[in-house]
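Q: Hi! First time doing this. I have a protein sequence and I read that you can turn it into a structure. Is that right? Here it is:
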Amino acid sequence: MFAPLLVLAGAYTALLAWGVLTGVDLPWLDLLYGAVPVVAVLAVGQAWCAQMRLQGGCLNLSGWRASGRLGWALLSLLALAAAEVAYVLLFDLPGVDAPDVSFVDGLYYLYYLGLLGVLWMDRVAGSQPGRPLSRGVLGAWLLDSLITVVVVGEVSWVLAVSPLLQDSGASVVFKAVSASYVVLDLTLLTVGLLLLRRRLEPARLPLVLGLMVYVGADLAYLLLGDQYQPRGALDALWVWGTVGQAVGVTLLTRLQAVPADAANVTRGGGWLDTLLRALPYAAVAVACALLILRGAASDLTGRGVAWFTVTVFMLVMLRQGQGFVETSRLNRRLTEQAAELKRSRDEMEHLAHHDGLTGLLNRDGFYRLLKGAPDHAEMTILMIDLDGFKPVNDTHGHAAGDTVLREVGVRLRALAGQGFVPARLGGDEFALVSLDPRGPVLAPPLAGQVVQALGRPYAVPGGSAQLGASVGVAFRTASTAAASGGVVGSGAVGSEVILQRADAALYRAKRGGGNRLEVEAFTHGSTPGAGG
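A: Yes, that's right. Below is the predicted 3D structure, encoded as structure tokens:
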């Protein structure tokens, strides 16, 4: 039924344009005008019946709940169609002036309320399924929309509502009915702006456009007053607004069956976001202009302008306060995220340079520490190799070997409190390094403590294990570093030389039977293995 609806609306618009351009009045066009909402009702009704059949028939209560939005739209458009047809038959065609209030107004009210029900069920104030929106974002949208709507109401007040209220020839009932239409239109305009600000599926666009076009035509009719000409541009806007609502609500119902991630969800585009952001500023400018032009008057219009302007600036202040609160919240979140990123980075840095089994520096961390040492600074290195570790793995298993290695790490960490940093270089090879000027003095006795500590028994599953430790010590004092001149070179080369000498000392300790220490100092012109 939507194809006939579009054809009918297109034909009405074309004939209306032809009549306006040629100056020919076509009173029978009012019949086509009244037929548009009737066909819209038939189209939506057909979609509702099809959905009810899919839900198990009209007696299925779950089907009524699932098709609630479409049902509300059907009732809303049915009230609109009845109102339009009654108005055309009772007033337009006979050329009779409509009374101040009639049952037709009641039908229009039902249409407005039904449309608000449709929009409420569409969760206009809610968030996208699976994409929750914060209360701060929703509050900002609502305040921005209200600022714009209040200024539109202020313009309506100056141009139409205030003159109507001051018209002594109009009845109180007529004034009340006319003002109520303004309130309903402004309410729908607020909802329409909220719809535009949220993420839009393409299926929602016809409903939004239909709503905005219909409300715009209503407000224009109010502002024109006696200057309104039947069978003009406003009638075409009402027709296409009705078509957009009928098509839009049906497409939305079909969209319910599409998963949120599969739906083509987009924003209205950069230009639409820019326009919506600019609207509150333009509205405030209009409010200021009205205040300058009409606010000084002491009549009803001037007092209304003053109150409207005060309301606008109260909303602006609330919006600024809300923006400050939201900015503070975002700053806190950014601070927390930055701290979390730093913790993650530090954790990754730690994992990259520390041994997973013992928690000591690994080989990369050890060499990083050596290369970061200042040029020609004091440096002391103890290279440690466990004696008899392989039989532990062979006898007690690798789990027992891991237990021993962890215990070695614990013992080295306890001994390293004298300015030394422990490291596991791989397998059963460990090291202690110090950049402390006291390191050369502390190293020999510390090496003896290492041999003793690592030679104590280790508790392993099923018994105990006895190991030994060989230690090679090498160091460089500030005086020998300075005396070496170009031999040592940069800190990195010097570190490698000291490491080679510590390895040489370790080799001599192993070759001498193990479970002992060897010390080799760095002196000018010496080569690895020359000291003792």
